[in-house]
Specification:
Peroxisomal Thiolase, Chain A, domain 1; 11-stranded mixed β-sheet; two-stranded antiparallel sheet; 19% strand; 2 domains; single chain; alpha/beta; 13 helices; globular
């Protein structure tokens, strides 16, 4: 088979989010509309204005990492290691030996080692504490991919994608392209983010895009997003490689589209997201009529939801009423660089179970947004193919298309 004909399938899924540790906890929460958002207060930030976030409570990295890994990792890399371990186990891969030169790792992160940075700066400017000798190794955005590669002997392509909220989706997209091109037979791909630090949280507060209480994507009276943290990692493989080792494909990653608005740093366009979706469909050989479900970027901010709604109308036309579109960010929060990977995991589970998860907290239609974003209750329906959208600051748009095997 030529490189151009190589089909790519998902064989393993892993996740850790505010919904719990593991993909079953994430999918159950998404399907049932049970939010992981809760009261959240930072000890070093007494003037905190927003006090709701989707944080992972009670996470003990010592239960998952070696002593050496604990010394050399920031929280975002720790979460990625947890998700990767689940994905590899789910894929039935033997991790007792190095995965080798035909295996790669691409883990996206919008920020990287936020906690190491925050602690280091606090220690430097306030307490005059000694700077962690491994600060640089912990904060670099590629630390998660490097830690995963070292743990499992991944000797093929290993890198990070850092493109804000599109990072996780682009990591999967580039992994898809590398396998198609023959650069690798299998990849660990996804995203990880642990940004709920005092300084980062304050930076988001001053943007005035965070909901003071509840995130309501596509709804009337929506007033912002809710931050989250977490990681999701997928094992993707060339189809024949997966079948030869006896793996069970969960879905096919059939298309990828990415575009740049090349305009305003923060204000989204309609044309860029629409082109990303159209490109993903064309790459997959799918039509809008083939799609049963779209996991929308759906942040709950005023402008983002309007522009995405219009982009969806442009792509799907008269069929928009026949496709189920929802946002799951009120469940797991907006985890920035990890969001696209978390949402792709949910999209795959939606396809496998033929259930469109709901957009919770929805009150009533906004005439400028989608009229039916699967409000509040999951919907059983046939899903043979689906899209997952991620649209980022900087005008970066990315869409993945998946289909049932």
């Amino acid at each position: 088979m030529t490189a151009a004909g190589r089909r790519v399938v998902v064989t393993g899924l892993g996740a850790i989010t505010a919904a719990g540790t593991g993909v079953p906890a994430l999918w159950q929460a998404a399907r049932e509309g049970r939010s992981g958002v809760s009261e959240f207060r930072l000890e070093r930030y007494p003037r905190q204005r927003i006090t709701r976030a989707a944080h992972i409570a009670g996470f003990d990295p010592a239960a998952h990492l070696s002593e050496q890994e604990l010394k050399t990792t920031d929280r975002f890399a720790q979460l990625a290691l947890v998700a990767a371990a689940e994905a590899l186990k789910h894929a039935g891969l033997d991790t007792g030996a190095p995965l080798g030169p035909r295996f790669g790792a691409i883990i996206g992160s919008g920020i990287g080692g936020s906690w190491t940075n925050d602690d280091g700066h606090y220690g430097f400017y306030v307490t005059e504490a000694r700077t962690d000798l491994l600060t640089i190794a912990k904060v670099m955005p590629n630390a998660a991919a490097s830690q995963i590669s070292m743990r499992y002997g991944v000797r093929g392509p290993s890198l990070a994608i850092s493109s804000a909220c599109a990072s996780g989706t682009q990591a999967v997209g580039y992994g898809l392209q590398m396998i198609r091109a023959g650069m690798a037979d299998a990849m660990l791909v996804g995203g990880s983010e642990a940004l709920l630090t005092p300084a980062t949280f304050r930076a988001w507060e001053v943007l005035r895009v965070m909901a003071p209480e509840t995130c309501r994507p596509f709804s009337d009276k929506r007033n912002g997003m809710v931050l989250g943290e977490g990681a999701a990692v997928l094992v993707i493989e060339e189809l024949e490689h997966a079948l030869k080792r006896g793996a069970t494909p969960l879905a096919e990653i059939s298309g990828y589209g990415t575009t740049s608005d090349a305009g305003d740093l923060l204000r989204p366009t309609v044309e860029g997201p629409a082109a990303a979706m159209a490109n993903a469909l064309a790459d997959a050989g799918l039509t809008p009529q083939d799609i049963g479900y779209v996991n929308a970027h759906g942040t709950g901010t005023v402008l983002n939801d309007i522009s995405e709604s219009e982009a969806l109308r442009q792509v799907f036309g008269a069929h928009i009423g026949e496709v189920s579109v929802s946002s799951t960010k009120p469940i797991h929060g907006h985890a920035l660089g990890a969001a696209g990977a978390i949402e792709l995991v949910i999209t795959i589970e939606a396809l496998r179970d033929n259930i469109a998860p709901p957009t919770i907290n929805w009150l009533a239609p906004d005439p400028k947004c989608l009229a039916d974003p699967v409000p509040n209750t999951a919907r059983a329906r046939p899903i043979n193919a689906a899209l997952s959208n991620s649209f980022a600051f900087g005008g970066i748009n990315a869409t993945l298309a998946i289909r049932r095997m």
